[in-house]
Every structure is written in structure tokens, then in C-alpha cells.
Amino acid sequence: MDWGLMSRGETLSVPDRLSVDLERLILEGDLAPGEKLPAERELAQLLSVSRVSIREALRELENRGLIDRKPGRGTIILAPGETANAAEDVIEAFSATRSELTDIMELRAIVEPPIARITANRAQPRDLTQLEELVKAMELDVTKERYAELDRAFHQAIAQYTHNPLLSLINEQIANQIAPSRASRYQTKARRQASSVAHRRIFEAIAARDGALAEEEARAHVHDISRQIARAADASAKPKELRDGLDE
């Protein structure tokens, strides 16, 4: 991990900035579940900040259920939504299911819009900073694989910022199910651009504390993705010469 790449922001306190940056590394998978963070003293030296700032940032991440700290063992990364006594039955049920993509999109349409509404009411200032930075990153000309990472991180962050670990857990399991579609041929450049516009609309509604609009924008986004997937699936059934003309 190149700790020198972590950003510095002026609108947040040093501990909040650190917690935002570390959280994004977790959301995007750069810090994987089970991975151990350097000790506080080492992190403070790597990031050129005080140990007090590191301690406060780690306390924030611990409160959010993103890390587990134990004396003598150190700090371990948890999966977003994971807790020491996570809802194992839910996880096992999702893991045992190999649903069709249409089924997963139907579930997303039920789950994600209300989550966006809740987050609009509960997101903290540092949460809004995180969401905005993820949106800005997706608006850049990035690879399909990088976009898939940011896309997943954005939706997981929204669930995380309900500050309800069960909602975050459910969203994480949905993300695991749809991961292949995020990196598949469905993920055209046109779809990424449309998703980025939708993501910004969702973020702006959340930042405005407009729960009804956030829910509406999230629902429109999921429905639009479902339509695009259906069109791509129809196109894949056509002869190759026709598919070549449809690919973007």
C-alpha cells in the first residue's frame, strides 16, 4: 500500500480526512477484509500526522464497523457491514443463491431507493465528502475495471451512511451477486457515462437532505440499468454482424 497517495482535504478536520481516505480504500477493496493495518505510530509517520489524529480516525472507522481493534493483535479490516456477530443466516442465504441478474435488479429496485432516502437524513458531513469524491472519480475517463470498483464503492457507501449495519450488510451481499455484470460487456462507455450522471443526481439529492428526491433518483437509476441490461441481453441474441453494430 502506497500510503503517500492518500489525499489531503481542507474542508474536513485531519482525523475526518484520514477516516474518509481510509474508508475509501476499504470500500474500493485496496484494503481487503482480514488485512492488518500498520501500528498507530507507523501510520502517523507514513502519513505525516499526529498519533492523536490517527487514533481519532481509527476510532471513527471502528464505530462504523469497518475495522476491529484489539490490544496485542492490532487493527484488522472488516468488510463493509460486517460485525463480530453479523447476520450469518442472511449471508449464507445470499451465498447459496445463484439468482438471475433480473432477480437481483428487482431486489435492488426494492432495497436501494429507500436506503438513499434514509442516507439523505442521516449522512454526516464527512460522509457527503466521501460520496462527492467517489462521484468525481467516476466522472473521469477511467477504465471499465476501475469504474466497476468505484461504482460498487459508491453504492456501498450510501448503504454504509444509513448507519444501519444490517442495511449495509444486505447491500454488500447484493453487490457480490452483481459484481460480474459490473465488469461484463454490459458495462459500455455509454452506460458508464449515464450512470455517472445518475450517481451525481443521487449524491446531490442526498447532500440537499431531500430524502424523497434521493429515493426517486435512486429508483430511476436502477430502472435505467435494468433497461440497459435487457437491451444488451437482446442484442447478444442477435447474429454477430448485428451485435457489432450495437456495441458502443
Give an account of the 3D structure.
InterPro entries: GntR_C, TF_FadR/GntR_C, Tscrpt_reg_HTH_GntR, WH-like_DNA-bd_sf, WH_DNA-bd_sf. This is GntR family transcriptional regulator. It comes from Leucobacter luti. GO terms for molecular function: DNA binding; DNA-binding transcription factor activity. By secondary structure, the protein is mostly helical. It has 2 domains: 75 residues, Winged helix-like DNA-binding domain superfamily/Winged helix DNA-binding domain (Arc Repressor Mutant, subunit A, Orthogonal Bundle); 159 residues, Four Helix Bundle (Hemerythrin (Met), subunit A) (Up-down Bundle). It is 67% helix and 3% strand. It contains 11 helices and 2 strands, in the order H-H-H-E-E-H-H-H-H-H-H-H-H. Strands 1-2 form a two-stranded antiparallel sheet. The C terminus is likely disordered.
